[in-house]
Amino acid sequence: MRAVVTAPICPLMSGPSYQCERADEALGGMTVEVLEDTGTAWRLVRTHYGYTGYAPEACLLFGEETAACWERREKKVVLQGTCDVLAAPDVAAWQVASLVRGDLVAPKGREQEGWRQVLLPGGQEGYLRGSFLGQYHTAPVYEDEEGMRSTLVDAALAYRGTHYRWGGKSPMGIDCSGLCSMAYLLCGVIIWRDAAIREGYPIRPIPRENMRPGDLLFFPGHVAMYLGDGRYIHATARAGDDGVVINSLRPGHAGYRADLAGSLTAVGSIF
């Protein structure tokens, strides 16, 4: 059986309890495969990118036909960091829901005076600014390498300043692999959610001297995206940074991190 994620952010825990570690987050509009009914308020699920975790039942709408119907709909992705869905096309209208970057909605009709009517995965309808939405990509957004690299970097930079959250993957809080995997996902590429190069996913190891913007830098238990000129963007829990920042591999640069520069284990690329 499958289900649709109806909450803007659905925690995926390592066990069926909020006392367990957060492994990941599924975002609104994603579909998941239900692997196990625990007999509690939690279900073991697997995301479309292959990650498993325990999700609260309250965040899910169950049913194979429900999931299939949602998947058939045209969808847009929220690109604004956070935004409200309103009951009417008026900034003073009541908020129906609050969404985050990466959530999916189904557009209804054409944009009018800057507003777009949308259907949410839980069945609610409302309005939000059309400029908050972007194309939902299920394949690489660009065929040419330079365009794809630039778009990947822009997608990662959009999270700059987001605070660190273990297992997070939204502007409400994000971790290192959440940042990198979301940047790729928004560009239509599914990579492994953790800080590792995994067989069956498109990231492959390349020589360090060949790294270019958009490639991934792997450290023990950590991953970052290379920006060029020795600099990289990553989500770090280090005191004083506490979130998505830009650092450098080069000693002469501001933001040089000797601990990371000296522990780079691999460089990965889809190109």
UniProtKB/TrEMBL annotation:
E.C. numbers: 3.4.22.-
NlpC/P60 domain ranges (all copies): 146-268
Presence of keyword S-adenosyl-L-methionine: no
GO molecular function, one term: cysteine-type peptidase activity
PROSITE patterns: NLPC_P60
InterPro entries reported for this sequence: NLP_P60_dom (IPR000064), Papain-like_cys_pep_sf (IPR038765), Peptidase_C40 (IPR051202), SH3_16 (IPR041382)
UniProt-listed Gene3D superfamilies: endopeptidase domain like (from Nostoc punctiforme) (3.90.1720.10), SH3 Domains (2.30.30.40)
Classification via SUPFAM superfamilies: Cysteine proteinases
PANTHER family reported for this sequence: MUREIN DD-ENDOPEPTIDASE MEPH-RELATED
Name by which UniProt lists this protein: Dipeptidyl-peptidase 6
Native organism: Pseudoflavonifractor capillosus ATCC 29799
